[in-house]
Design brief:
5-stranded mixed beta sheet, homodimer, globular
Chain lengths: ~160, ~160
């Protein structure tokens, strides 16, 4: 195997087709709704050129993706980055590809003046919680043992 | 008391001074770090004119604030709104001001083509969890009893 084959890199709009398929496969695998790979591709073509969404991928064509959105926050001089999705195709798991993407995300975030990186992790997904803790994330507030739950409300009609 | 005195409204950059003080008082009350009201005011003057941060306030001068940031998301055609902060000055709590701000937020979000509203709520803050549930929020994923924890990593140096 060519060691460069799985090199992580920043995605651009030319990767929208492949990333749309990866994200659709992600939600299909975990039984979550998806608008379909074509709709996702069309949105990604807009988003990846817009400066508020970035994707890191592994390989060409990509076999893994980290999708990140940026936003401002009054408590920080820089930006806040939320890791919306991290997906590795099933047959390539356990090979350090997710870790490589997170490591790449941390260096990319520093270069983009990001001050805070966030991710929501399922309460029962202890493996994912350990994975993010290994990469420097924590669920507890500063000076407190308390975690926070993610609450949401869909207002589409 | 004039019933209009606590009317909720969208804030503009002229409210940056008052909101900066409210947010500083918020973090001071709960023992969280704050860069100071003046730094917050300067950031709010930038953010409130930028279209990615909105604030709803109650009263003139404001005695309560809901601070919201907007971002794109590949799973939605519209935007995602995160309620970063909701603060009511101590002497005005229990008067429905927080509920009025959330109600105003929901109508404002619809007008802005927001599809999803999010907030992170402390694990032990059952009162806040009940408050958001009364206003239509949930912590569980669709078709699942599972909640998600908020993980974060500060990368400022």
């Amino acid at each position: 195997m060519n060691p460069d084959q799985h090199a992580t890199r920043s995605a651009n709009v030319d990767d929208a087709h492949a990333i749309g398929h990866l994200l659709h496969d992600f939600n299909t695998e975990f039984g979550e709704p998806s608008p379909g790979a074509e709709v996702l591709e069309a949105r990604l073509r807009m988003l990846l050129g817009g400066g508020r969404t970035l994707a890191l991928v592994s390989g060409t064509p990509p076999i893994a993706v980290a999708l990140v959105t940026l936003r401002p926050n009054v408590w920080y001089a820089g930006q806040v980055a939320l890791l919306d999705e991290l997906y590795v195709v099933p047959e390539r798991r356990g090979q350090g590809i997710g870790s490589a993407l997170i490591t790449h995300l941390l260096s990319t975030a520093l270069a983009l003046s990001v001050d805070l990186i966030e991710i929501n992790v399922d309460e029962g997904d202890v493996d994912a919680q350990r994975f993010y803790q290994r990469h420097g994330f924590t669920a507890v507030a500063p000076d407190s043992p308390e975690r926070a739950f993610y609450y949401w409300q869909d207002i589409t009609f």
